[in-house]
Design goal:
19 helices
Length: 485
Amino acid sequence: MTNRRSSERSASATEAGSSALSRVLGNSAWLIVAEGATRVVSLASILYLTRALDDASSLGAVQYGMAVFALLQLVCTGGTEALLTPEGVRNPDELPRLAGLSLLVSWAQFVVAFVLVVALLWARGMSPDMQTSAAIFGLAGALVPVTLRFAFLALERARVIGLGTLVGQIAFLGLCVAGVRSPRDVVRVGVFWLLSTAIRAAVQLVVFVRSHGALVLETRGFFGWLWRATRLSPGSIARGLMLNVDVLVLGLFRPADEVARYALAVKLPLFVVSWSTFLYMSLFPTLARVADTERGARIEATTLEAVLSVALPGAVALWIAADPLTVVLFTDRFRDATPLLALLVWRIPLVAAAGVFRTGVWARHPRTDARVAVEMLAATVVVLAVLARAAGATGVAAGMLAGDALALVLYLHAGGMPALARVQPATIARLAAGVALTFGLGWAVPREHGIASVAGALAAWGVGTLVAAAPYIRRVGGELGRAVR
């Protein structure tokens, strides 16, 4: 009888564990697919606007507006998500009240941030187009809290977040294709962004209300929640802001056409490196569960090797093909962004490597991660402000490379560097061989043939990655084979 009960409990625990794993994998899969599609549609939107606006100043105003939106989005959701997601997990029945509270807290933070940003742009004497675009895109930030992302994270319904974001991005692309034809339509771009964000918010709000009922707006304890959310905000804001602080700072000191060239040049490196975040999504829970320092260091070292085996050959290939890539993606009008792209592609291996060590610190010491992020952002902003004034876009590009290198050093120091010591000499030799092969093949491809030149560089990247990442490709292939069987 006792053995039978024990067996039943064991079976129940196994079933629960399997169910939990299925939820995690299902949520991750939905988020990865939707986020991946969103990145592609987002890039397509920028490529279309590059051709439709056909004017550096107008495109610079749009790019700066997007950077302001990203800033305000971080300010009004970073703290509330960190604060209310655990509350939602512990008290799912309280989600309507927590959702109402999240709106009140987020909007209070948004109002303060929006007023400060608009005042700063006016004080800096920015062009009317830049100020108008920043204001319209910035207003869209007030709609982001309505998406109730924290609630869906708490409910493990990542598919709602992913699909809502994708629907919004598709709506933006469709509106731009339908209504943007010339530089005179630059204001429409911001309005379309506002409308697409409203569509995204409406979709996710309807899903929430249908499942949990109307939001409850109550002010009891509001100032206490606001203070707690504000205290949690700096780390989240600092981590997210490193992706577009360069555009924000450059726009404070340089004209819109220079902002446009820089923003286009940095778009491709950020697009490439953004895919590594999916790997870190899987790495974080693994490291969080591992108590053995030695095992955690081995996992980090293996992840670092795998990431660099793609990132290093990629940076070499994109550096070689910077000129044809710029023309193919952004047209000959923006060919003068080529030197910036050739410099910024080296952010790819730096950001990818720092991401591995940052995930390890985040999993084990979240407060240290927040502190390092704030220190890193503060130092980077100061350096960028000096370089933007003195050397413009080129100085900012060099400053971001220095900032990424600083992030790598800080996270290495915070994590104690156990993973770095476990990188094998054979791995270094394989990486060197992959990089050398990519360079040799890429350099042999003529760079005057447009798409053909780009295709040749991408092929060189693929071959170099096959050599550098051979053990990991075999391992992934084996895992997929077992999953199919």
